[in-house]
Amino acid sequence: MATTNDLKNGLVLKLDGDQLWSVVEFQHVKPGKGPAFVRTKLKNVLSGKTVDKTFNAGVKVETANVDRRDMQFSYKDGEYFVFMDMETYDQLHVDPKTVGDTANYLLEGFDTTVALHEGTPLYVELPAAVELTIAQTDPGVQGDRSTGGTKPAELETGFSIQVPLFITTGEKIKVDTRSGEYLGRVSG
Fold first, then answer.
1. Do residues 132 and 175 touch, judged by C-beta distance below 8 A?
2. What's the CA gap between 168 and 159, in Å, rounded?
3. Range 145-148 contact pairs with CB under 8 angstroms and sequence separation of 24 or more
4. What is the pLDDT of residues 98-114, one digit of tens each?
5. Would you put residue 48 in left (φ > 0), alpha (ψ -120 to 50) or beta?
6. How many helices (H) and strands (E) does the chain have?
């Protein structure tokens, strides 16, 4: 248990029965009149739905024990993603719904963070940016380079993103895993 004074971003709360909600943002408000309160934005850990919720200051809230473990993506077994715990070398099969959009940027051997609650995987987190190779993209047309336009490119994971016209098939690029944006070339 914690009070609303202990809220911080990333804390997972157990509300409405057994639903898990992650604190995305919070703000302590002390109006001129009336009691203080805490305004929060919460994200449902399983569904990803975001809600705004207000708590009276000092109210007790139940926190969920979330174990964040460093794991490496090993391989795909049927539709399940298999991750290996880097400390115990145990393998964990994770449902594709839990992996979600992270799968677009996931390659064998990538380091990830898997959040578990009572042994159940909640979500898989990648670093903010990953390096991937362009599997296929059409060549840019000569003379198009000055416009700053983009073209679709397929990554080695099979996911397509928009890249600048000068990028060619086989190049290694940096991709933002939160937005899917091209961040730049990887040299060397």
1. yes
2. 16
3. none
4. 888 888 999 899 999 88
5. left
6. 1, 16
